[in-house]
Specification:
Number of helices: 14
Low-confidence stretches: none
Number of domains: 3
Number of strands: 21
Strand content: 15-25%
Bound molecules: 5'-deoxyadenosine, iron/sulfur cluster
CATH architecture of the largest domain: Alpha-Beta Horseshoe
Length: 439
């Protein structure tokens, strides 16, 4: 039994991308204003919220099996509230409640500001795309201290319509948040101890807005944020190659607070496949863009996303992808087997044989992990910044993220979370680095 005099407990499970991690935090804050506190233990929750992802297949199946597992809990405690949020909620809508009557509410990513009211009213389905900025309607979070690194959503949605992708349908058209709101949220985060902000958006570098001196691009926004005293590191994700404007490349050249790390999905190295995917650039244009970015910031680490087995992909197309990977040299990368998504242009196209796609994925992943290992081992001997996040495994040890997002363990008995230190990297382990404090 739950103690009714205590605060109500909210359990959130987040699937998928960083946008969802940010959205889950904001929903937790919104529900905090309704008297809910987060719990890590689903069995003691008064409300369970599943924040779902729809980018690849089986997401809906995973949701339904997770919901199935909640049945005994709901049977035991009928007043337990169960909510489904995120992109599966958007895509499936009321169908979720038809299949799973135990679900009390279904809320799409554009309707989170109406979540508290829905809970008060006992549930429902809300997958509308409102015109207002949902973040303005979410209550301001309590003035609690934050972890030293935080996310800030500056842009949502996508107008690119890559032939494989559901995002334009689940997250809607591209919308940029206004400069003043972004600056205010960033200042608020910094006032609460945040030293590193990762700017988020499905097409984050497509952000644009009206600054005090006219129309701003994303590079200009980064320069404005870099002016905030106490904010020491800026990152952003995810970008489209066609939106890498000159002012953003210049920001990488000129702005030391902008970390030397760029996630720039290319998906394929074959012009034929890039065209079929509707990516609107060639492999060569991507490579020339990388040249310009590296000329601006020679120590930048590049990461990417790849899809293998896109409809029509031949052995030659796959070889072109491997060549592109060899030529660029990525610090790390995500690679996926193509998964047909209902409602997308590529859905009905003839699929590549599944075993062939599996073999290509293995080959690409082997190459990418060799590059990742080399990039990580190449850090040994280098001097890097590390932002401490928490104590490490050993007494006196701290762990934090390097400029390149590697986890770094450092012996630093005097240090505390939030300290930004200079470190010489001494060892590379499979998933982390070790270093010693400088100065
Ligand atoms: N199949 C496989 N991978 C996909 N991605 C997006 N849609 C699909 C799909 N239908 C991958 C892309 C994208 C990343 C977030 O997910 O590589 O960049
Ligand atoms: Fe999807 Fe393409 Fe938009 Fe990225 S750019 S979110 S892959 S449609």
């Amino acid at each position: 039994m739950t103690d009714k005099t205590a605060a109500k407990k909210l359990f959130i499970k987040t699937y998928g991308c960083q946008m969802n991690v940010y959205d889950s935090q904001r929903m937790a804050e919104a529900m905090g204003a309704e008297g809910y506190v987060l719990t890590e233990d689903q069995s003691e929750a008064d409300m369970v919220l599943l924040n779902t992802c729809h980018i690849r297949e089986k997401a809906a199946e995973k949701l339904y099996s997770d919901l199935g597992r909640l049945k005994p809990l709901k049977a035991e405690r009928p007043d337990l509230k169960i909510g489904v949020a995120g992109c599966v909620a958007q895509a499936e809508g009321a169908e979720i409640q038809r299949r799973m009557p135990l679900v009390d509410l279904v809320v799409g990513p554009q309707a989170y500001h109406r979540l508290p009211a829905m809970v008060r009213n006992g549930g429902g389905v809300d997958t509308e795309f409102p015109v207002e900025d949902k973040f303005d309607h979410l209550p301001r979070p309590a003035a609690t201290r934050r972890a030293p690194a935080a996310f800030l959503t500056v842009q949502e949605g996508c107008d690119k319509f890559c032939a494989f992708c559901v995002v334009p349908y689940t997250r809607g058209a591209e919308v940029s948040r206004p400069v003043s709101r972004i600056m205010a949220e960033a200042r608020d985060l910094v006032a609460r101890g945040v030293r590193e902000i990762t700017l988020l958006g499905q097409n984050v570098n497509g952000w644009h807005g009206q600054g005090e001196d006219g129309e701003w691009g994303f590079g200009r926004l980064i320069r404005a944020l870099a002016g905030i005293h106490g904010l020491d590191r800026i990152r952003y994700t995810t970008s489209h190659p066609n939106d890498m404007a000159d002012d953003l490349i210049e920001a990488h050249r000129l702005e030391p607070k902008l970390m030397p790390y760029l996630h720039l999905p290319v998906q394929s190295g074959s012009d034929r496949i890039l065209r079929a995917m509707n990516r609107k650039h060639t492999a060569d244009e991507y490579l020339r863009l990388i040249d310009r970015i590296r000329a601006a910031r020679p120590d930048i680490m590049l990461t990417s996303d790849f899809i293998v087995g896109f409809p029509g992909e031949t052995d030659e197309d796959h070889a072109a992808t491997l060549r592109l990977v060899e030529e660029v040299g990525f610090g790390t990368a995500f690679s996926f087997k193509y998964s047909p998504r209902p409602g997308t242009p590529a859905y009905d196209r003839a699929e590549v044989d599944s075993d062939i796609a599996d073999a290509r994925l293995q080959e690409l992943q082997a190459l990418l992990s060799r590059q990742q290992k080399a990039a990580q081992e190449g850090m040994v001997g280098r001097e890097l910044g590390v932002l401490f996040e928490k104590p490490g495994r050993l007494p006196g040890q701290m762990v934090g993220k390097s400029d390149y997002l590697h986890a770094v363990f450092v012996d630093a008995p005097q240090a505390k979370p939030g300290d930004l230190v200079r470190v010489r990297i001494t060892h590379s382990a499979p998933n982390s680095l070790a270093g010693e404090l400088l100065g």
